[in-house]
Design goal:
Blueprint lengths: L1 E8 L8 E12 L4 E12 L5 E13 L2 E10 L7 E9 L8
Antiparallel strand pairs: 1-2, 2-3, 3-4, 4-5, 5-6
């Protein structure tokens, strides 16, 4: 289990609105390359109602520094999106600069 707080700023918006996101994650590793997760996500924008989501999905490690993921979320409040589908590709580059 883990949780996280993040702050987002969107420099392309004319007004400097901030978005705070809180998450709570339960993750189950399948093997060394695969894991599944369920996550509560709360997006709390300045001056607007929060959007609450229940997000589930999985990750698969292609190589030690490359990962693909998929997710499906459902909204928990009327002002949240009804559903969200997503896929992603992540890679680590912090080791590029190590000696």
């Amino acid at each position: 289990m883990s949780g996280m707080f993040r702050e987002f700023f969107r420099p392309w918006e004319l007004s400097p609105r901030r978005l705070t996101e809180a998450t709570f994650v339960i993750e189950k590793e399948g093997d060394q390359r695969m894991s599944l997760f369920t996550e509560y996500v709360g997006d709390y924008p300045d001056g607007a109602r929060p959007a609450l989501l229940l997000n589930s999905g999985g990750t698969y490690l292609l190589m030690p520094d490359h990962q693909v993921d998929f997710r499906f979320a459902v909204g928990l409040k009327h002002n949240s999106p009804n559903y969200v589908f997503g896929t992603g590709y992540s890679f680590r580059f912090d080791r590029l600069f190590s000696r």
